[in-house]
Amino acid sequence: MKLSKRQQEILEIVKEDGPITGKQIAEKLSLTRATLRPDLAILTMAGNLDAKPRVGYFYNPQSEARQNAASLAKQIVNNYKAHPIVVQKSASVYDAIVQIFLEDVGTLYAVDKDGLLAGVISRKDLLRAAIGNNNLEELPVSVIMTRMPNIVTVQYNETLLDAAKKLIHNHIDSLPVVREVDGENQLYEVIGRITKTTITRAYVELLETEGLEVKLL
Ligand code: ADP
After folding, report:
1. Whether CATH 1.10.10.10 fits 5-59
2. How many whole angstroms separate alpha carbon 49 and alpha carbon 58?
3. Is the distance from CB of 59 to CB of 15 less than 8 angstroms?
4. Average pLDDT over residues 141-150
5. Could you give the residue range(s) of every CATH 1.10.10.10 domain in the chain?
6. pLDDT tens digits, one per residue of 165-203
7. CB distance 152 to ligand 1 below 6 Å
8. Domain 77-202 is classified in which CATH homologous superfamily?
9. Mutate which of 77, 117, 146, 197 for ligand 1 pocket (most atoms within 8 A of beta carbon)
10. CATH 3.10.580.10 residue ranges for the chain
């Protein structure tokens, strides 16, 4: 729910001074009690405020947490994506390991010669390949990567909530952010990366920019 300026002012007053009566809020805003009544009714019905008879209005922090969660859910992947680290699918496992250290990432995306998404290579894929294999320079990543059609992707215009659900349901750490080139043939251009860290960072940034950091009591 989008609050009006006056409703926001009321919330601020109740946050600071609650529990506080309707009459006292009206005095602080230099308005009459009757003028404020509809706003107080809305804020109480929406759950932003709680009211107790003979005590007054007090602030309900849970409603803020709900609003924060809702605003996080609506954010678009494209505004939060990180830079994707890609390797050619013909690159060696050895080069992929070097790349993962140099770029300080947990997952690489393999592309074909047209630059389209061909595979995902995670830390565990590389560890698995490294066990008992002493010729990593000769082994192409295409042999060990998770490949199409098994790659879970997120479109640039999906929401962070969509991305978070995919990460959780598929037990993976990252998703390539893609733009469809030819959906029927599953041809995608990789334009970014969403990881568990991206989503955690988005959560913190949203709370900070909206000044809504929940104070632990
Ligand atoms: P780690 O290996 O570091 O634990 P993940 O949990 O992300 O990283 O990877 C586990 C497995 O899932 C690996 O085999 C990897 O190739 C695969 N995987 C990772 N991301 C995706 C994805 N977006 N789509 C499909 N498979 C993936």
Report:
1. yes
2. 6
3. yes
4. 95
5. 5-59
6. 999 999 999 999 999 999 889 999 999 999 999 999 988
7. yes
8. CBS-domain (3.10.580.10)
9. 146
10. 77-202
